[in-house]
Amino acid sequence: MEMKQVYEALEKVENGADLIAAIKGEINTLNNEAKKHRTAGEQSATKLKSILEAVSVRWRIKITRPKCDMYPVFWTPLKI
């Protein structure tokens, strides 16, 4: 059943217009609340992305080694 059909059925009931108005008001309230949470989530995601990008840049800078000859290489070739 679609909302249009629900509204049509409620119009036939006593005080149906009041019920329809209450339902539409509640739907509007829920939509506004969902929009508020959605936009807050999008803002949080944007902030998190910028923080992660900043940390990633710092992390890459910290782990970038200077010339390799400064670090000894400890490995032995395989003998076959």
Number of helices: 2
| Overall geometric form | rod-shaped
The percent range for strand residues is under 5%
Helix content: over 70%
Low-confidence stretches: none
What's the SSE pattern?
HH
The overall pLDDT average reads 79
How many β strands by DSSP? Answer: 0
The radius of gyration computed from the alpha-carbon positions, rounded to a whole number of angstroms, is 31 Å
Structural class comes to mainly alpha
Short structural summary:
The chain contains 2 helices and no strands.
Task: Describe, in plain words, how this protein is organized in 3D.
This protein has 80 residues and is an all-alpha fold. Helix content is 71%, strand content 0%. The protein is built from two helices and no strands. It has helices at 3-11, 16-63. Helix 1 packs antiparallel against helix 2 (16-63). The longest helix has 48 residues, at 16-63. The N and C termini lie far apart (76 Å). The mean pLDDT is 79.
Note the topology.
Blueprint: H1 3-11, H2 16-63
Salient structural properties:
80 residues, mainly alpha
